[in-house]
Every structure is written in C-alpha cells, then in structure tokens.
Design a protein that fits this description.
Layout lengths: L6 H22 L6 H23 L6 H21 L7 H20 L6 H6 L9 H18 L10 E5 L9 E5 L9 E7 L6 H4 L4 H7 L2 E5 L12 H17 L2 E11 L1 H10 L8 E5 L21 E7 L7 H13 L3 E7 L11 H8 L7
Parallel strand pairs: 3-4, 3-5, 5-6, 6-7, 7-8
Antiparallel strand pairs: 1-2, 2-4
Helix pairs in contact: 1-2, 1-3, 2-3, 3-4
Length: 373
C-alpha cells in the first residue's frame, strides 16, 4: 500500500477497513430480528481492531495521518461498543441506530487523509468505480490543488471537498456540503439534497450519499432540520432554511437548476413529498425512502394535490416496521393515478432503514447522462 502510513499502521488500516465495511453492509439492511446476528459478526472484528490499536498507541513518533487513523479507529470502536448494547433490553433498534453515529464520525475523520492515500480514497468511491484509476487521480489532484490554495482563500465559498456549513453535531439548521475535488465552474453540476430521518442529523446522513457524489460527479448537501425532525406539520419552517441553503450553494457553485434531487429517509422522505407539491418548488426530482408517502392521500385514498408530471422514485421495504409496505404500495398507485411520474421500488428484505445500494438506481433515474461513457 502506497500512502501516508508506516508499516505498523498498515494492520490498523486493514482492521479498521474491515470493520467499517461490515458496518456499511449491516446498515444497508438493518433489521430488528437480526440484531444479535449482526452483533456476533461485529464483535470479533472490533476485538481485533482494539488489539491492533493498543499495539500502535505507544509508538513514537506518529505521523499526522497515522494520528488520524488512531482517532478514526477509536470512533469505530465506540460504535461497535454501542452496537453490543442492542443485543438485549428495551429499544434495541434505536440503540443500533445510535451506534451508527460514531461510525459516521469515524468516516468523517478518516476522509481527511483520502487525498493522501489511494486506498483510503477508494473506500469513499462507489464499488462500480473502485478500480477507476483515472477517477482516483482526479480526486487526488483536486485535493492537492485545494490544499495548496486554501491558505490563500480569504472567502470560504467556492471551495471543494467536504465543507461544514454550521452543521456541527449538536447544532441544528446547518448543512454539510460536498463539492467534488475535481469541480470546475465551467459546467453546471447536478445537486443532491439528502434529508435525514427523525432525530437524525445531516452530518451523519451525509455519508449515505458521499460515495455516489464523488464517483458520478454531483454536488451533495445534507442539511439538518431546525428541530429534532422536519417540520411536517408546518412545512414552511424548514423550507425557509432549505431555500437559504440552495441560494447560498447556487451563488457560489455552478448548479444545474434542472437537475436538483430531493431525497430522504423516513421523516426526511415524508418531508420531501410535502415539498413536492409546493408551488414553484426548486427541486426537480424526488426520491422518498421508507417514508409516509401516503400523507398526500385523502381519506378516500386519492391524491388531490398537484402532482401531475412530478418525477418520483419511491423506495420502500417489504419488512418496514414503521410504515407498512401496504401503505407504500397504495400511495404509489394513487400518485400514478393522479399523474405523477412514479417509479416504485420495493425491496423485499429491507426494513426501516436507508439502502445505499439503491443510490445508483436512483441516480440513473435522476440523471442518466452521469452514466454515459
């Protein structure tokens, strides 16, 4: 492996990568009846990572990139420890969801060395592009030029890479932004806006879409709701925050206003659907996942809202324990009858969680030209 890590840290990287990949696979199909099986899978990986981490903690000197690796591994182990708590007791699934927060933080820390290591960068690339050396080189080259120019930038706008816009955990109403390292203002870029679920945070949900944004060439924004969840009963509250976000992004980066996707999980997906019927909505496509899409139906099961010709990619799990799949099917049928351009994707083994493996299909529907060679 070529990169910023000395020999003793290569094992730490390997063990961390193994654990993060396992969490990624579990996260894609997080199902309450399987929590003990998941925990059994995670435990030996976590113990191995913990032993390797203990072995390098006393080494001196440690390179800055290696210190980043230590911090990332520490966060991953916190996630594994929290996941252990989901084995038994009350609110098991909520404990499992909470365990994923340190995993997001682990990735956030790790990403800071992606520009220095092809192997780390590859972890943040969609599997279909894992061996795309041209993409890796473009990402690395863009990262290097960004680092060289950062000290000269008095104005933070116009930057590339991951940018925090007042979205630190514990704060509400900000957003996390990703602008591809190879961004150039000479072309208009599609924008993905990804909304977290109830009690979630944009800085965490951001990682559900980063691989696709990096690999296929999209700008990504993951906002946080003003309250614990999106303002479903008073949609204008969070809509104002989203409009300010869009205004700021489009003022500083070249956005293709005909290709703005609004997607979201659970409450985020429900809120996306509520915004789809707002007059002159800035969004062009909608992809609700595990959401209460049936909120647009009246008591007779009819969608009377103005949805004609609205492109909607609706994703729902056959094992969803919060919003039964029957309601999702009914909503899809009612939307289609009302004239919406609906694609309904039902995943039989999906519970109430976000399936990252559906992202590529959503993108092909949203912007087919991204896949043209």
């Amino acid at each position: 492996m070529q990169g910023p890590f000395s020999a003793p840290f290569l094992s730490l990287w390997t063990d961390l990568l193994t654990l993060l990949k396992a969490f990624g696979e579990i996260q894609d199909r997080l199902d309450p009846p399987r929590l003990v099986d998941y925990a059994d899978r995670i435990l030996p990986m976590a113990r191995k990572l913990e032993a390797t981490l203990s072995g390098v903690r006393g080494l001196d000197p440690v390179k800055p990139a290696e210190q980043i690796l230590i911090l990332s591994a520490t966060q991953a182990l916190q996630g594994a420890a929290r996941f252990e708590e989901s084995r038994a007791g009350a609110h098991q699934i909520m404990k499992a969801f909470q365990a994923l927060r340190p995993i997001a933080r682990s990735q956030e820390i790790l990403y800071s060395v992606a520009g220095q290591s092809a192997e780390v960068s590859r972890f943040f690339i969609h599997p279909s592009h894992a061996n795309d050396t041209t993409l890796l080189e473009r990402l690395a080259s863009g990262s290097e030029s960004r680092q060289e120019s950062s000290s000269q930038e008095a104005d933070p706008d116009g930057r590339r890479g991951i940018i925090d816009m007042n979205n630190l955990r514990g704060k509400r109403g900000g957003y996390t932004l990703y602008v591809p390292e190879y961004y150039t203002p000479s072309q208009a870029w599609p924008l993905i806006v990804a909304l977290h679920g109830g009690s979630g945070h944009g800085a965490d949900f951001f990682w559900s879409w980063l691989r696709e944004a990096r690999s296929f060439g999209c700008i990504l924004a993951a906002p946080s709701s003003l309250g614990r969840t999106w303002s479903l009963h008073t949609p204008a509250l969070d809509a104002g925050s989203l409009n300010r976000m869009l205004s700021h992004i489009s003022s500083n980066w070249n956005i293709d206003t005909k290709q703005i996707l609004l997607t979201g999980i659970s409450d985020g997906g429900t809120y996306a659907m509520l915004l789809s019927i707002v007059h002159q909505s800035p969004f062009t496509h909608y992809a609700p996942v595990a959401a209460a899409v049936h909120v647009l139906m009246n008591r007779s099961g009819v969608v009377e809202a103005p949805v004609r010709d609205i492109p909607i990619y609706q994703v729902h799990g056959g094992r969803d324990w919060m919003f039964p799949v029957a309601s999702a099917r009914a909503a899809a049928a009612a939307l289609a009858k009302a004239g919406a351009k609906v694609v309904y994707s039902e995943i039989p083994d999906l519970s109430h969680n976000y399936p990252r493996d559906e992202n590529e299909k959503i993108l092909k529907w949203f912007h087919p030209r991204l896949f043209e060679s």
